[in-house]
Amino acid sequence: QVQLVESGGGSVQPGGSLRLSCTASKSIASFITMGWYRRDATNQREWVAVITHGGQTKYIDAVKGRFTISRDTVKNTIYLQMNSLNPEDAAVYFCNANVLEDVQIRDYWGQGTQVTVSS
């Protein structure tokens, strides 16, 4: 079992920045991937960014150049630095981890953290 705890959400004006954190209850060094998803007010969920076991990163087009995903394997934490936020980025952001346990790949989720972007 893995627990994921997000933090760092809040309310900012358009153009502002936030950094989200997601801390896992065990070492993330062996996780297959970790990433961030978001669910907007219309309940649409979309994948935002991912970092692989090897450190590769990928982003949806809407956030490329503005968001950066990173990790600290000592702190068992991943981050999502979000710059130049706009109202379309407002959502509940969820941390996700794909973990190989025994012979199964399990999906874990955090509880979510709210990001509000408004003037």
Q: How do you describe this structure in short?
A:
By secondary structure, this protein is mostly beta strands. It has no helices and 11 strands. The protein has strands at residues 4-7, 10-12, 18-24, 33-39, 45-52, 57-59, 67-72, 77-82, 91-101, 104-109, 113-117.
Structure description:
By secondary structure, this protein is mostly beta strands. The chain has no helices and eleven strands. The chain has strands spanning 4-7, 10-12, 18-24, 33-39, 45-52, 57-59, 67-72, 77-82, 91-101, 104-109, 113-117. The strands form two sheets. Strands 2, 4, 5, 6, 9, 10 and 11 form a seven-stranded mixed sheet that branches. A four-stranded antiparallel sheet has the order 1-3-8-7, with no helix packed on it. The protein is globular, with a radius of gyration of 14 Å. The mean pLDDT is 96.
